[in-house]
Amino acid sequence: MADGQTSTWGFLTNHARVLLAIARDPTTRIRDIAAACRITERTAQSLVSDLEHAGYVARERIGRRTRYTISLDSTLRHPDPTLPVRTLLALFTNR
């Protein structure tokens, strides 16, 4: 940008970043998701809820912890409606 201004946009949405954090560690805590994504815990909780309601993530309580499962065959909200979640995760994780 001109005049030393910085841009605030990024290539991945916060929803995608939260999904990637969960993919990297399915037992991660909301606090850790927030730190990894540089968002507030409240925002992280809201984004995880969005992903859960949309069918991308399922939560299971195991004692005091939560374990997340990602629906790898769900399709991304993308102009190409056939692009599965697993394709995105393969680009950014070791899965």
Q: What are the key terms here?
A:
globular; single chain; alpha+beta; 2 strands; Arc Repressor Mutant, subunit A
Number of domains: 1
Structural class: alpha+beta
Radius of gyration: 15 Å
Written as H for each helix and E for each strand, in order along the chain, the element string is HHHEEH
CATH class bucket: Mainly Alpha
Structural overview:
With 95 residues, the chain is an alpha+beta fold. It has a single domain (11-92), classed as Arc Repressor Mutant, subunit A, CATH 1.10.10.10. Helix content is 42%, strand content 13%. It has helices at 14-24, 30-37, 41-53, 85-92, and strands at residues 57-62, 65-70. Strands 1-2 form a two-stranded antiparallel ribbon. The longest helix is centred in the middle third of the chain and has 13 residues, at 41-53. The chain is globular and about 50 Å long. It starts with 13 loop residues before the first helix and ends with a helix. The mean pLDDT is 90.
Outline of the structure:
By secondary structure, this protein is α+β, with helices and mostly antiparallel strands.
Annotate the secondary structure layout.
Blueprint: H1 14-24, H2 30-37, H3 41-53, E1 57-62, E2 65-70, H4 85-92
Helix pairs in contact: 1-2, 1-3, 2-3
